[in-house]
Amino acid sequence: MMRFVLLFLLVFAAAERAASNDAIMLQGAAQGTTWHVKFVAPTANFDAEGLKGDLEAKLAEIDREMSTYRDDSEISRF
């Protein structure tokens, strides 16, 4: 029972912090749709734009490898 209470308090505290104004929202377009990521910055000087660039680069890489709509994708070679 004590574990449940501790888990509940931890989840509640995390949700409360995420609902604050400290939450960062990143969004963009990839693979014909949109993506959204919402998180609380781990530090005050966190580079959110750098993370967004990393996410966009990884999604572009996945698109180049696995898109069935691109003739030059790796998966289309088979």
Structure description:
The chain has 78 residues and is α+β, with helices and mostly antiparallel strands. 46% of the residues lie in helices and 21% in strands. The longest helix has 19 residues, at 48-66. The protein is elongated, with a radius of gyration of 18 Å. The mean pLDDT is 86.
Count of discrete alpha- or pi-helical segments spanning 4 or more residues: 2
State the share of residues found in helices, binned by percent: 40-55%
Structural class: alpha+beta
Cα gyration radius (Å): 18 Å
Average pLDDT, all residues: 86
Distance between the termini: 54 Å
Instruction: Tell how many strands the DSSP assignment holds.
Output: 2
Uncertain parts:
none
Biggest sheet descriptor: 2 strands, antiparallel
Q: Using the alpha-carbon principal axes, give the shape.
A: elongated
Portion of residues in beta strands equals 15-25%
Order of helices and strands: HEEH
Strand order of the largest sheet: 1-2
